Amino acid sequence: MEDLEDQFKALSVARRLQPSEPTYLLGMAVQRCGSGDGLVAVCCSNRSVHLHSSHTLRLQGEYKGHPGAVFGVRFAHTSSDLLYSGSADGTLRAWDVRCPGSQPLQVFQSSPSYPLCSFDISCNDLVLCAGTEQVEEDSLLMFWDVRMAKERGRVLGVYSESHSDDITQVCFHPRDPDRLASGSTDGLVNVFDLSHGSEEDALQATCNSCSSVSTVCWAGQEYGRLLCLSHDEGLHLWDLGHVDTEEPLTVLSVPDARCSATLPGDAALDYFVGGAWVEDTKRLLVLGGTSRGELHVFDCRDQGLELLKSLEGGHSATVRCFQWDPAGGALITGGEDAQLLQWKPGAEEQASGKRCSLKSASALQLKVRARGKHKSKTEK
User: Fold this and answer.
1) Which domain range does residue 71 map to?
2) Band of the pLDDT at 151, cuts 50, 70, 90?
3) CA dist 156 → 109, 140, 167, 174 (Å)
4) Is the backbone of residue 20 left (phi > 0), alpha (psi -120 to 50) or beta?
5) Distance between CA atoms of 274 and 271, rounded to whole angstroms?
6) How far apart are CA 26 and CA 321, in angstroms?
7) What is the mean pLDDT of residues 185-203?
8) Number of structural domains the chain divides into
């Protein structure tokens, strides 16, 4: 297989889709169908979820069921025709992507007084977990058993003691259905083993990023590491294989990783979009960008970030989300210019639309909190 570095050095825009409606593209998920002709689900700031062909980017369908802002989408692992969406309206909804525009198959309801802001589904597709905003003194991790259809989405259980602010990230382990990581604006990244009964027993490790957590990503051999990116652009990499040893968990910790990312010329990063572990090549990708739409792809190593490719001529505003599509061999990106872009090695753009900034008033009002450092359990 072609080396990841060679693939990314040759990346260029292959296809571009810019909807007529000026809506932010906030998050996406790629259907794992074993071929290059699957679907890409995108959540938009107008509270809708769009389905696009991962090959052509053409719109295949749309869901408009959430009365609140949609913050995330996930495809089921064992049944790729099932798509979940999460919303601040306090619900997670399951959709059949074979029937775009239809009503949800299931609705999983949280307490009306606890808006949701993150979610994920376990690798065996049996458990949904969502994180809530802080309400008074509580920030909750809520769990649902997807098999309990007759219970009308009733909550299976709740963790309430491990975070003290909005839970911005919920991320199940890609291979262990009982292993869960959560991140919060309280600065903590917690790792749980759900096979244990109580929340106290389930908590296996607590890592402190000392800042508000924006992204959590499983990575490394057997997915034994965690990447954490913070809202003030810090980068942390922890090795959870050392949890039961005296060795430190921290592999890499940079308070502002933008300063350590070497770019050509006078270029500078404004923000990080997120990270992704590429299983085929065993490499950890980190994507950064500028407010003008330029993108920079990095290989995250133990020593720091190494630039693989700078991507220009694509977006015209901040990029909010990306996915690496291994079946199609493509990087897919979306952002505040409403554009959905497909990048492939050696590609020539097949359809080009007018590139203009659509950074108009968004339907989603983003909350910004003071990002102070929080006292927490001490990392080993």
Assistant:
1) 21-258+321-328
2) low
3) 11, 13, 18, 22
4) alpha
5) 9
6) 6
7) 96
8) 1
